[in-house]
Amino acid sequence: MSYRLIQLNSGNKIPSIGLGCYDIPRTQTSKIVYEALDVGYRHFDTAVLYGNEQEVIDGIAKYLKDHPEVKRSDVFYTTKLWNSQLGTANTEKAIDSMMQQIGPLKYIDLLLIHSPLPGREKRLESYKVMEQALKQGKVKNIGVSNYGQHHIEEILKDPEIETPPAINQIEISPWCMRQDLASWCLAKDIHVEAYAPLTHGYKLQEDSPNFQEIMKKYNKSPAQILIKWSLQKGYIPLPKTKTPSRLKSNLDVNDFELTPEEMVLVDQPDAYEPTDWECTNAP
What we know:
There is one protein chain. It is built from ten helices and ten strands. The protein is an alpha/beta fold. It has a single domain (5-266), classed as Alpha-Beta Barrel (TIM Barrel), CATH 3.20.20.100. Strands 3-4-5-6-7-8-9-10 form an eight-stranded parallel β-sheet. A two-stranded antiparallel sheet has the order 1-2. α6 (179-187) links the parallel β8 (167-171) and β9 (191-195). α3 crosses α4. The longest helix has 16 residues, at 120-135. The chain is globular. It starts with a strand and ends in a 17-residue tail after the last helix.
């Protein structure tokens, strides 16, 4: 096994590394998901916004059919509600559609609200609908994405909500550390998934002497160092790749450990360079 299982506040377990499926072309998605399963991935992250949910499902379903020794319960499938699907009626309709689409996978392991942007009323309505889907067994875990502390607090303080988010998925890398938010989530037993942990490649070629020394010491790529950094911070990284050869190398991070001093060298606490959107500070 090239990952470990992390127990969520729901009591369920999630693989410590997942394949981020954002920006993988639909024509390639099923093949890449199948190949990822073949090299050891068991955790896949998609969204309505990504436009490749069906292809992710198809890749998983085909692999499970071809490999009966791998059980459905071994694979962790995440998707996300888009902004236009928030609000009670919209979320009910969206989940019904997702359940029809899921087919042989039978259930969603983790359903997230993709962003807080639709506003307080709609996001709370949607969370309550998700909680009902959880109780009905359609979904195993629920959570949020791109949420700031104040967004999560409104969930925790709502007397009609019984289930805290299992996950807050946010962009995290050494150049977008969000240390206060991430630490607060972990202290509340809300696990943090790190999307864009490789900065979409924007920072991988930077010629930092410190980074070069660490890479040379462990004979690891920049991507492997960043994934290990994220894991050692206590996060669940979701590295993305369209390149089959990198699928395996992104999992190959178990044979070394960054020292506390090296973790500090990788940290960029003064940087704030998100590569995607920023809505953790939305009202």
